[in-house]
Every structure is written in structure tokens, then in C-alpha cells.
Design a protein that fits this description.
about 230 residues; 10 helices
């Protein structure tokens, strides 16, 4: 794999997305620290919803701008006319997008979890930590679905469909998760209980992310036409 080809493509996407991502990340970080500034479980829930929305917004914006727009603006055929392989192009897109989203996801997730641990007067925050972790990993999985679909499908219609489906599926999935005894029985407790149910769900989510990334490489490798 030619790293000298991959690096400029990654840097290009970083340059395109640095300002938009900052515009998503900064409000998300502010939302994540709200429970430190204001008491109450309603503030805590609003904080989590807003920070999760900022993560999703940054990720989906990056995919639409650096993947879908390249196809729509006819930039992709030009890139593929350069001395670059499909594997190198796919690697560049995955590295750029996963890094962009990863920085936002890791920092906002860590902040939300630290706030949940440090908010001493909110028992809900403590007992809900395993569920919050499932929510945060669910956002990573939803983003990976959209990224994989956009790369393989190269269509704005498919990308939008993936965003809608991932959003709805994530909400249904979380409603199902919160109904499970291993989650429901501890979510309102004063301490975080890491049950086998929670570990199994999180492990399954992370495995699904890895499988989707692998499938993206496999399906991309079969392409011969980028016009």
C-alpha cells in the first residue's frame, strides 16, 4: 500500500472538515458539561441527547462532504484516474472519516461519562452509566453503517436512506435494550452495575462495527467503474 498516495487524500479531507467539525464539536462539548453547571436529572438527559446529536451531526456531515459530494461533483473519477488503487482510496476515506468522527466521539463520550461519574447528586447518572455506554457505542455503530453505505453505494439517496434507517433502528434498539432485565433492573440505581447483558450488547456492537468495515473493503475491492 502506497502511503504517499493515501496521506494527501487524508489531509485533504481534514482540511475540508476542520471548520464544520469544530462547529459540531464545540456545542457538543458545552452540552456534555451542562450537568456540572446545573443540577437535575432533566439537565443530565438533555445534556446526553445534545452531545449525542453533536456526535452524529459531525459524523454524518463528514461522510456527506468527503464521500458523497466527491461522487456528486464528479471528483471521484478524477481521483481514481490517479495512480491509486481501490484499496488505497478506501483506506484513505476510512482513515480520514474514522479519525474525524473518532476525535469527536471519544472526547464527547469521555466527557459525558466523566460527568455521569462525577455528578454526585444524580443517582440516575450512576445507574445509567452502562446504558449510556451502550448509547454511545450505538452512535459509533450507526455512523459506521452510514459510512460503509456511502462508500460502497456512492449515492446521496443511499446515504440519506442509511442515515434515516440507522437513526430509527438505533432508537428501536435502545428501547429494546432498556427493556432487558439486566439493564432495566439497575438503570435507576445509585451505582453502575456492569451485567453480562451490558457486556454482551457492547461486545456485539463493536463486533458489528468491525464486520461492517471489513465488508466495506471486500465490496469496494470488487468495483471496476468509478465514473
Amino acid at each position: 500500500m502506497n502511503r504517499s498516495i493515501i496521506q494527501p487524500l487524508v489531509v485533504k479531507d481534514f482540511e475540508i472538515m476542520k471548520t464544520p467539525v469544530l462547529c459540531w464539536w464545540a456545542p457538543g462539548l458545552l452540552a456534555a458539561v451542562l450537568p456540572w453547571l446545573f443540577d437535575g436529572w432533566r439537565v443530565f438527559l438533555a445534556s446526553l441527547i445534545l452531545s449525542v446529536s453533536a456526535m452524529a451531526g459531525a459524523g454524518f456531515h463528514s461522510v456527506m462532504q468527503t464521500v458523497v459530494e466527491e461522487r456528486r461533483e464528479k471528483t471521484l473519477p478524477f481521483i481514481m484516474s490517479l495512480p491509486i488503487t481501490v484499496r488505497e482510496y478506501t483506506s484513505a476515506k476510512l482513515i480520514a472519516n474514522l479519525t474525524i468522527f473518532g476525535v469527536v466521539w471519544v472526547t464527547l463520550s469521555a466527557t459525558s461519562l466523566v460527568v455521569a461519574v462525577a455528578t454526585a447528586d444524580s443517582p440516575l447518572a450512576k445507574g445509567a452509566i452502562p446504558f449510556i455506554t451502550i448509547v454511545l457505542v450505538g452512535i459509533l455503530l450507526a455512523y459506521t453503517i452510514v459510512l460503509a453505505t456511502s462508500l460502497v453505494g456512492e449515492s446521496i439517496g443511499l446515504a440519506i436512506t442509511a442515515i434515516v434507517v440507522a437513526n430509527i433502528a438505533t432508537q428501536i434498539f435502545l428501547w429494546w435494550v432498556v427493556s432487558l432485565d439486566g439493564i432495566r433492573s439497575t438503570i435507576e440505581g445509585s451505582v453502575a452495575v456492569w451485567s453480562s447483558t451490558a457486556f454482551t450488547i457492547i461486545g456485539g456492537q463493536l463486533l458489528a462495527v468491525l464486520v461492517l468495515l471489513w465488508l466495506t473493503f471486500v465490496l469496494q475491492a470488487r468495483k471496476r467503474d468509478f465514473i
